[in-house]
Structures are given as C-alpha cells and as structure tokens.
Amino acid sequence: MSSILLFLGCLAGIVLIGWVVSKLAGTKAQFLETFPLEPGERVLWEDLSADAYPVLTQRARYVTYARLGRGAVRVTTLRIIAGTKPLFGSKHMIEHVLYPADRPYPEEATGISGGFLKYGFQVLVFERSSVERHATDKHPFVELTLTPSVGSSTNLDAFRIYSDALAAFLLPE
Questions:
Q1: How far is 88 from 78, CA to CA, in rounded Å?
Q2: Residue 155 and residue 58: Cα distance in Å, rounded?
Q3: Residues 109 and 83 sit within 8 Å (Cβ to Cβ)
C-alpha cells in the first residue's frame, strides 16, 4: 500500500513541477483551429486527419508510425503547422511548426528547445530541396529532411506527414 502512495505522490509531484514551469515560462497551449495566420499568409493545403511525426536520429532499424487520424496538418504560404488532438480534447493542439530553410524563420529555431517553452510548440527548419514523397507506400507520406545545423533539429533527422490526400500536398511558397 505504501508503494502505491509513493508512486501517486511522485506522479503528483511531476505534474506540479510541470505546472509551475509552464506558469513561470508563460507557455500556453496553441490550437490549430484558432492559431492566427501572419498578415498576407494563406492556407495552401489542410488535412484534419493527417498524422505527423518527427523522425529521430538514433532510432530502431524498423519503425512503424501509427495512423490514428488524430492529427492535423496545415500548409500555408510561410510554414507547415502540425498538431494532434489530446486524449479528451476536440481541438488540435499544435506540436510542431516547420519553416523552409531558404526563408526567414524564428530565432527560437536555433535553440535546442526550438521555442517550446516560449510558444508551447517546437519550431523546426527543413530543407526544401530534399522533400521526398512516398505516395505509393501502404501508408502514403511526405518526408521533410530537417536542417542539421539548426539547434532545434538536434536528435532529429526528418519530419514525416502521413496523409491519404497527398496528391494535392503543396510546400510553402
């Protein structure tokens, strides 16, 4: 009985520490449905059942990514915004925002956290020239190779977007 209470106490402590850090940093959850676009920015492609995953540098030889349909991806003229629904939520919480390396991107992308503590999501930078489309695979996806010299890409090789609507997928202009 005492080990269960100790375990629950540790869980409560972790939640409390996370809550305090988020309050001190001023981080708030950002949702795809209410995320403001920059002036002049417009939506090029959107899939509310797409799944998006960062691909780790040190990973198993064979990795499968679940197609749960809980994610969403929006491609605009400036960036790619990817999010997922939380367990008991109805809106898509933004997890990653990707910018092309040949365009201006936020300064936070150069840090190892990628702006997570400032924005509530990670800012990544990808190479436009090395985008690979895997439309004929069992689970079609687009793989964006991340820029290794940018700090937010530490321990990440690529970013994958799984969607059944890849025929109309466009990159930011």
A1: 30
A2: 7
A3: no
**Whole-angstrom Cα distance, residue 113 to residue 34?**
23
Characterise 113 by phi-psi region: left (phi > 0), alpha (psi -120 to 50), beta (else). Answer: alpha
How many C-beta atoms lie closer than 10 Å to residue 135's C-beta?
A: 11
- Tell me the C-alpha distance between 75 and 68, whole Å: 20
Q: Please, which residues have CB within 8 angstroms of residue 116's CB and are 6 or more apart in sequence?
A: 27, 122
Q: Taking the chain (173 residues) in consecutive chunks of 10 residues, what is each chunk's mean pLDDT?
A: 89 89 77 91 92 85 74 93 89 92 82 70 89 85 89 84 86 83
Contact 54, 143 (CB under 8 A): no
Please name the residue that has the structure tokens 């820029």: 147
Other beta carbons less than 10 A from residue 67's beta carbon: 16
Q: Which of 113, 116, 96 is nearest to 150 (CA)?
A: 113
Beta strands 132-134 and 122-126 are unpaired
Give the separation between CA 38 and CA 82, rounded to whole angstroms: 16
